[in-house]
Write a structure and sequence with these properties.
Length: 374
Amino acid sequence: MAEVAQQLRRSSRLRLALDAIRGREREADSPLDQSISFPELVWAHHLRQKEVYRRELNGTWENEYRRRLKIFKAKHGDIVEAYWCRFEASGVALTEQRLPRRLTNFFRRDSILRLHTATDWRTANAPIVAASLHRWETAAIKAREVLRESSERIALHWILAGSTRLLAFVDRRSRAETDADLDAVVREQQAELARVDNYYARAGENSARIVYFRGMVWGTLALVALVGGAFLLAWAVHWIDPSRRPTYTLFTTIGMGAVGAILSVMTRMAKTDGFSLDFEVGRKSVRFLGGLRPWIGGLFALALYLALKSNLVELLQGRKHGIYFYATVAFLAGFSERWAKVLIEGAFGRPEEKDAKRKPLSTQAARSSERDRW
């Protein structure tokens, strides 16, 4: 019997390992779903609050609320700050879930902040307030998906404060407020939301610049790995000789083109309006675009180097070009794509210029006479 139990444990562990490799989640032992949504937690809190008002300190809903709160915190993390309505089952809360340490964040653990809302019960008779709360929720979604670290924390706490202000205004036993008071609160919240949107735009753009720069670093490392691997492979099969001038000039040209592209982005980032990104496309897309930037600079430099070596493009005629000349040209090609395009187009010619050359002289003379008349 002991051997059978041991074999069952081994097969269970093997099954768990295979599920982990395949990305499958293990089904729960209980057929019932053990997760708790925030509206379910808000409802239990409301019923527990009624018991407290009746001086029932250890009522039925006290234990049920604690049970639901434990399950909710196990999935979403600790509740950092919350507001619970007194006379209706509604509330807002901000949770923080601490992520395990990894190599990328070993010294500073990352956390997931999330705003939870359940306000439809209280705002059923106040559609203006419900619409304003919906705009605050939308701002929280954008801040959670785009921002990180301190800017995300500031924005979400700011949004929670605005949502609490609106919910507290309608959370009254008496209806002594007038439409003028409601309009004043809504206007105040709209102005506050505009300030939050302004902060979100500035923080999102700064965050996108950091992500873009990290992407350039990873793209540079990938370029170095690919070019270096190709160099070692060609050297191993005796295709190239590292001591020859054309060999190290070629690889120097590619490297200087990538360096020029990176420096071009860094100088534009230093300006207020010199570099702009659509940060709402997502961090992965911004990182991917940043990773392409060194490759673009290196390829432009390579193309211009080949054009110079094949005499399609001529610069400083009558002089002997060495490695410093090609490195400088490669750096300029990576630094300014427009400059590289002008030189390359000068080698091959623009399509409209070729069409103009093919047209008869009578047509060109007629067009020149028209320009003279105008």
